[in-house]
Design goal:
Organism: Aquamicrobium terrae
Distance between the termini: 26 Å
Number of domains: 2
Structural class: mainly alpha
Order of helices and strands: HHHEEHHEHEEHHH
Radius of gyration: 16 Å
Low-confidence stretches: none
Protein name: MarR family transcriptional regulator
């Protein structure tokens, strides 16, 4: 059975792969010490603030469901981008629905996040946020797919963009969801 953190882990893997493509290097520029594999369970756990046990279980679930595969050359897990994209666009909001909650401070998500802020404006005056005490924005709270998402997004802007697009699909109206789905499809290839 899939869990919310499985999507977070898969999008982190996509973020790492995107970094490699953009940089032209064999390893993403993650700020880790030399020789540390950013795809390792330990590094993924540290980056996402998820236990190594949960990362390992998440990767197993994702491979079993077909949302991830093991790279033939490196043996590293990587997202099956096509399947992941289709699942997020067509099924995620039914499996992991988002329910807006109380007003509080947090990190902007969905249409209020930087990835969508300029291209799409919500009809309402309220923004959606992931509850996060250090953040200063006020908005209607939405539980992220995993509790450590706001913290992990502070150090990975690509992951932040992916997860904000996912939230726009989960909670947006039809126009917002379609626009976010188009952007997500472009990013996931």
């Amino acid at each position: 059975m899939m869990k919310g953190q499985d999507i977070v882990v898969l999008l982190k893997l996509a973020s790492l792969d995107d970094d490699i493509k953009d940089s032209g290097h064999d390893f993403p520029s993650t700020g880790l010490a030399a020789g540390v594999d950013p795809y390792s369970v330990r590094a993924l756990g540290a980056a996402l603030r998820i236990s190594k046990t949960e990362i390992s279980a998440s990767l197993k679930r994702s491979i079993a469901s077909g949302l991830a595969i093991k790279d033939r050359k490196t043996g590293r897990p990587k997202p099956s981008r096509h399947h992941l994209r289709e699942f997020i666009i067509h099924g995620l909001k039914f499996v992991f629905p988002a329910k807006p909650g109380a007003m509080q401070s947090g990190l902007p998500t969905a249409c209020a996040a930087p990835v969508l802020r300029e291209s799409l404006h919500s009809a309402g005056s309220l923004i959606y946020i992931w509850p996060y005490a250090p953040a200063k924005e006020m908005g209607q709270s939405v539980d992220p797919l995993f509790k450590s998402v706001p913290e992990a997004c502070e150090t990975d802007s690509r992951l932040y963009a992916y997860l904000a697009l996912v939230d726009a699909i989960r909670i947006g109206n039809q126009r917002e969801s379609m626009h976010a789905a188009d952007l997500l499809a472009q990013r996931l290839g």
